[in-house]
Amino acid sequence: MSLREPVLHSVPIEELRPTQMTVGYREVEEKRRRWREQEEEDQGNFLGKHMIPVLLGPKGRRYIIDHHHLAMALLLEGVKHVSTNVVADLRHLDKDAFWIVTDHRGWAHPYDATGVRRSIDDIPKRVSDLADDPFRSLAGELRRAGGFAKDTTPFSEFLWADFMRRRLSRKLVEKDFTGAMRQALALAKGDEAVYLPGWCGPHQDT
């Protein structure tokens, strides 16, 4: 049951449960850099404007459904608490039913760093245990560079990451990120990517 009005809570980041298996560590580092660049007096306002959307699940646990990168970056920067916005209260469901609903509503992404779908049980219990997927970092940088537009499709950056994973080598992304970005920008404008959310390649006149 979705809540009609936002319900805000300040909770320890360590208590938040992920709904995905990976993040892009390079993306996390970028968010850490932006946090450090802010004046100390502005950091409170930043946290107030960047609430973490969560589901209330079994045993009252809070499950993140967005901003995993930000949560990890803040945790690494020594921030203990964040404000959360409760999107849906699913505390009445048992564990299996909760994950079925979460999966079918597009609130979970149980795919590992190679793009393979795994068991829900393989999702880490803590933000600090999320694994690195360098292609997710590539997708994040690709969007900022105009390779594709921001889109409301759940986990859209992961769809772009998987697209690039099938066309570029992990070694290239890890060893020559700039070169990988050049290739990614070209691939993003091609017809093969037309099905992806936020595609903004050239349209041919008919």
Write structural notes for this entry:
The protein has 206 residues and is α/β, with parallel strands linked by helices. It has two domains: 8-131, Conserved hypothetical protein from pyrococcus furiosus pfu- 392566-001, ParB domain (Alpha-Beta Complex), CATH 3.90.1530; 134-193, Helicase, Ruva Protein, domain 3 (Orthogonal Bundle). It has helices spanning 25-37, 40-49, 68-76, 95-104, 134-144, 156-165, 170-175, 177-188; strands spanning 8-12, 22-23, 52-56, 62-64, 81-89, 131-132. The strands form two sheets. It has a four-stranded mixed beta sheet, with no helix packed on it. Strands 2-6 form a two-stranded parallel ribbon. The termini are far apart. The model is unreliable at 1-5 (pLDDT under 50).
Q: First CA to last CA: what distance?
A: 46 Å
Assign the CATH topology of the largest domain: Conserved hypothetical protein from pyrococcus furiosus pfu- 392566-001, ParB domain
Number of strands: 6
Percent of sequence in beta strands:
5-15%
CATH superfamily of the largest domain: Conserved hypothetical protein from pyrococcus furiosus pfu- 392566-001, ParB domain
Write out key terms for the chains shown.
single chain; 206 residues; Conserved hypothetical protein from pyrococcus furiosus pfu- 392566-001, ParB domain; Helicase, Ruva Protein, domain 3; 6 strands; 13% strand
Task: Give a short summary of the structure.
The chain has 206 residues and is α/β, with parallel strands linked by helices.
